[in-house]
Amino acid sequence: MRFTPGFLDELRARLPLADGISRRVRLKKRGRDHLGLCPFHKEKTPSFTVNEDKGFYHCFGCGAHGDAIDFVMRSENLTFPEAVEQLAGQAGLPLPAETEREGRAPGPGLHAALEAAAAWFEAQLRAPAGRTARDYLAGRGVDEATRRRVRLGFAPDDANRAGVPGVQRMVRRDGRRRGVRGLARFDTTVR
Ligand code: ZN
User: Fold this and answer.
1) Predicted local confidence at residue 35, as pLDDT
2) The whole model's pTM is what?
3) Cα(39) to centroid(ligand 1), Å
4) pLDDT given for residue 177 in this prediction
């Protein structure tokens, strides 16, 4: 996760929702809510409400719904990190240090995906399909201990039919177990 839940909670707590929204929407207080014309669809009678206590806006006309971050993303067409950075700037809240954030460099997710792929090829070498490869390695003086130590693997001939879907399934399953997200990019590389 790029921003911790604690950081996002602090950000939401520092910025009253109605203040942020009233930069774009003229709001009138009605009871505990604020009411205004929805910025996300055309309307003449207000159906856009802001509930400060719960920290969300809701439009009864078009169903638009979300918190302060969603509002900035949607009204300014920003990504989640961009919206968070903008709001953090307004709130005077320092952004987490780069090292605490993922997404800039290959992170644990990519390493886990590669680890899962390596393990799959190793398993193919130990499997019946890898017998010819094992015999070849034995003929070259590479024993099992060495194979394990340097993590040799085997790509079966039918890799395009069975192997690649197999490794994708395994990477997905193993990735989920390790909390990996964003494997689509890896799949594209494998394919
Ligand atoms: Zn609406």
Assistant:
1) 97
2) 0.51
3) 7
4) 64
Burial 76-104 (b: 16+ CB within 10 A, else e): eebeeeebbeebbeebebebeeeeebbee
Q: Are 14 and 89 members of one domain? A: yes
**Minimal CA–CA distance to 168: which of 153, 151, 183?**
183
Q: What is the mean pLDDT of each run of 10 residues along the chain (191 residues)?
A: 83 90 93 94 96 94 95 93 92 75 55 74 83 86 84 72 59 62 41 32
CB 102 within 8 A of CB 1: yes
CA of 47 to the centre of ligand 1 (A): 7
Dist. CA 2 → ligand 1 center (Å): 30
Q: Which residues surround ligand 1, an ion (CB under 5 A)?
A: 38, 40-41, 59, 61-62, 64
> Same domain for 12 and 40?
yes
Give residue 67 CA to ligand 1 midpoint distance, Å: 14
Q: 54 lies in which domain range?
A: 5-102
Dihedral sign for Cα atoms in the order 59, 65, 68, 71: negative
The predicted structure's pLDDT at residue 17: 92
Alpha-carbon distance 41 to 70, whole Å? 16
Domain-embedded: residue 36? yes
If asked whether residues 85 and 119 sit together in one domain, one would say: no
Ligand 1 centroid to residue 58 C-alpha, Å: 8
How many domains in the chain?
A: 2
